[in-house]
Amino acid sequence: MSRKVVITGVPGVGKTTVIEKALEIVGEEGITYKPINFGTFMFEVAESEGLVKDRDEMRKLEKDVQKRLQKTAAQALGKMEGNILIDTHSSVKTPVGFLAGLPEWVLKELMPDNLVLVETDADQILMRRLSDESRVRDMEGSVDIDTHQRYNRAIAAAYSMYTGCVVSIVKNPDDLLEKSAGKLADVLR
Amino acid sequence: MSRKVVITGVPGVGKTTVIEKALEIVGEEGITYKPINFGTFMFEVAESEGLVKDRDEMRKLEKDVQKRLQKTAAQALGKMEGNILIDTHSSVKTPVGFLAGLPEWVLKELMPDNLVLVETDADQILMRRLSDESRVRDMEGSVDIDTHQRYNRAIAAAYSMYTGCVVSIVKNPDDLLEKSAGKLADVLR
Amino acid sequence: MSRKVVITGVPGVGKTTVIEKALEIVGEEGITYKPINFGTFMFEVAESEGLVKDRDEMRKLEKDVQKRLQKTAAQALGKMEGNILIDTHSSVKTPVGFLAGLPEWVLKELMPDNLVLVETDADQILMRRLSDESRVRDMEGSVDIDTHQRYNRAIAAAYSMYTGCVVSIVKNPDDLLEKSAGKLADVLR
Known about the structure:
The structure is a homotrimer. By secondary structure, chain A is α/β, with parallel strands linked by helices.
């Protein structure tokens, strides 16, 4: 049986670290997942079609072209053999508002089995963002981060209505990586 | 006009008591509803197809088989004559996460007119669960119960988007059963 | 490129004032939107079909007729040339519960690009409602207003899942109309 697990979380929540540790845990049990970044995968589809040369050009594509690329990428992932762990966003916070990470035309092709929301307290996310000098991000306050995380839960519920996927909330507080990764491992098993 | 009302609530919220009292109230006005437990109804479908012998076997069925059974059950309910009151869950809390009680393929066939969320304070639910020795349940804290109830509101909103059903929140606090049942009766009238 | 922006907010949030000011701001930049009230538009469709003579009759129409009218209205808006700003509700609070303002059959035809939630603190909404003697409304407490605004966010997330529309939260606190209208103007640009 091949499973499709989608994992999401706001920037700075520490998603990548939890993914790596969880894959290590289940890997020791002989369970393997191919980790796929949805944005990167979409870029590769666009590049192979000769539509873009670098990732910056992705944002400049027409809305209809972006939609078609999302669909093509989701179709390819939907047909993929073996377990896959798709790293993406429940919603993307843009300067004007929240964009759905998994709109209907993506869900329909992908039909994920699980959707994981990696979350932690807004204050901790704020501190992690402040200490991460490698990324240039618009600084949000903790109220905005809270709003974003709550919005992600709401849209995840809509994703679940449409696909039947199980929605898991994996808390990733400071200093408890083993526990957080363990929870994700439970989903992946 | 025949109506389909779905009623949901987390374990321990006292859904059954509210349903019984409300059916009594509207019954006196000559309004009748056939109460149906969605899980039991699905089991009866599975049993009649020779797929299972007892309810425990339901959980062990393949995901695709479960999905088909949900659809068949929803189809039968969708075509049923007269008013029906369907007792189910907005979401089911499993050890890994929240499962949609009414995924798209169920909603499409059922097309409920109303969805009722029976709710009360997490602390009261906790006390009711503690005093109910007949059920063996994983003990959750009140924060988890709150999260579950909020998630149920979010997924109910998604159900409403997809079907146009009216979503009613019926509070069921301690010692106010008459009032709670009265609110449900207003929905059923 | 013609855009479809939907704007929503609970009664008393000051939606109309924000719309007027924002249209003035973008108008000075040569950006025009045709403002359309969805309810009025639906009424005009019903009137042209000889189904109703005044708006009161709209509520008395059969559910199926209302659904067909919603669909016809959404179809007409979906095909409209030029930018349109559609004034409607994310959810309507009826005596029994929340009704979806943009159910699936409306969304499918309309496919909005953006959905704006105009919000402010429940206490401010309460004060605005109290001072607005022109409208007869059921008086709600601030807890109920909060619940309604939160429900609107949840259903907006479901709308976004289904259409890919960007969801913007525009806060409209007392004495900061310029700022609120400026945020809406950012969406309209």
